[in-house]
Structure formats: structure tokens, C-alpha cells
Amino acid sequence: MRRTARFVVVALTIAASALIVSACGSGDDVGAKDGPTITIGSANFSENALIAEIYAQALEANGFPVERKFNIGNREIYAPALESGELDLVPEYIGTVLASHLGGTPTSDSDATLAALRAAWEPMGVEVLDYAPAQDKNGFAVTGATAESLGLSKVSDLAAYNGTLVLGGPPECPKRDLCLPGLETVYGLSFAEFKPLDVGGPITVAALEGDEIQVGVLFTSDGTILAKGFVLLEDDKGLQPAENVAPAVRKEIVDAYGPDFTETLNGVSRRLTTEDLVSLNKRVGIDGEDPEVVARDWLAETD
Questions:
Q1: Which of 124, 143, 187, 211 has the fewest Cβ atoms surrounding its Cβ within 10 A?
Q2: Is the pLDDT of residue 11 over 70?
Q3: Taking the mean position of all CA atoms in its chain, how far away is CA 9?
Q4: How far apart are CA 122 and CA 145, in angstroms?
Q5: pTM of the entire structure?
Q6: What is the CATH number of the domain that holds 147?
């Protein structure tokens, strides 16, 4: 999958040449602020780079000097760069970074997970600001037709059809606590069959559309959910840990700029929902729109 601490551990993609660097903006909307340039990085997948662009544009609009270094690589690359001061800000997913980078144990409680993350990362000079409602985590989806015909809206609703539905997902799912074993122990579910497919990708999508499977493992912010009219089942018993989006920032930057800086970012995060993220991902990943335009549109529409 795209990030570590998912059902599959992401292989290292060390490609320094993949850096996409653009010049800092002018902050035309307000007077330029005096202070260090804020170097914003991102992981090397489109959603994370898009969120980084949203934060970058919001900061620029409020006069903060920004430099972009997007698509750096995976967490093994960008997290040390943040801690060393090579980067100043990176959008993170609170559960995954706590587990995979800092050795903590996230839960489905977003507040508790954030508190544990802050305690673990602050000694390294990294502050995690307020989290967004938006989450990108493992989810279980069905087609709109299946949801309507079986009356499904929550994962627990699947129990009424134990032994009759086919689950499809990553090949490692039967061995991962957050996948099939978790569905069995937390929800008491059983399936007629498990089909090993891909990691929330086109094979799983095609199998759902073709009714080869009735339940598929997808990411909760996948633009395909909107494009295909799928229904993401609510994780009503909290199997998956919290994966809210939040900016991780060097303490030196927070100290240099103070409340205006943190409130600018927190104000953006407060407005970003999972539904927004699904729509934004669809526009970029499926419709092929320019991420800079998509970010600008969203900021204008939600201001």
C-alpha cells in the first residue's frame, strides 16, 4: 500500500531525482512576513503532494515565504529530513507515522492518537498541529447497488450475510490484524471466500464492479469511491486506527512565526473532510486536473 503500517509494507523508493521543486510564492494577498522560508515536503503519492500544495497556498496567501519540495519519497526519507531541518513541514497521517516511524500504538481515537504522536515526536523538534477531519485509511467498500439491495451502511451490517459474501483485497489481508482477522474478531464476520487482489487498486475496483467480490478493501479517500458510486462502509466498531491528516512542522518554524502561522494551518485543517479528499483525489487522479488549480479551487470554495 502507499504507506507503511498498512496491510503491506511499502518498498523503499529512494529516488532523490524525483524531487519536484518549485519557487516560493509571493504572498500577494497580504504583506510578506519576515522570517525563515518554510520548506514544505511531501511523500511521493499524489494525495500527499496535493495536501502539501493546499497548505503551501494557504501560507503564501497569508504572506509566509514558502519553498516546495514535493514527491520526495516515502517516510523513511522525508521524516528524517523533517527532523534534521532539511524540511520544515510535511502533511502526515497520525496513526501511520506514530506506528511506523515512532514505534507507538495508534487507536481509533483521534485525540488519543494525536496526543501520543505529539509526545513521541516533540523531543525530536517536530510539532504536530491540529488534525483535519479528513482521514485516509483502510476501508471496506461495496457498490451502490449492493448497499441498496442489502441495506448496508456500516461494517457491522455485513454480519447479517455471514458466509454468503466474497471479500477481496491485498494478498496479505488474511494475515493482517486490520483486515480479515480483525473483521472476524472485532465484527464477528465470516465470508464465503477471500480473493487476493491488489492493494486498493484497479483490480479490486474491477472485481467490485463485476460482482466477483461484494466487499473490497480500498483507501477511504480514494477518488474511485466517488467516480464509481461505491459506498464506503462506516467502521462503526473502530477496527482501523485513526489516520487524520495533520501538518508536522519543525518547532523552529512554529517559534519563529507564532500563532498566525499555526492558525493559518489549523484553519485549513479544520475545513478538510474525508469527503473533500475523495473529491480532490478524483479531480487529480481520475479527471487529470492540475493539482495547483484543484488546491486553489478548494481553498476559495471553503474560505
A1: 211
A2: no
A3: 16
A4: 47
A5: 0.89
A6: 3.40.190.120
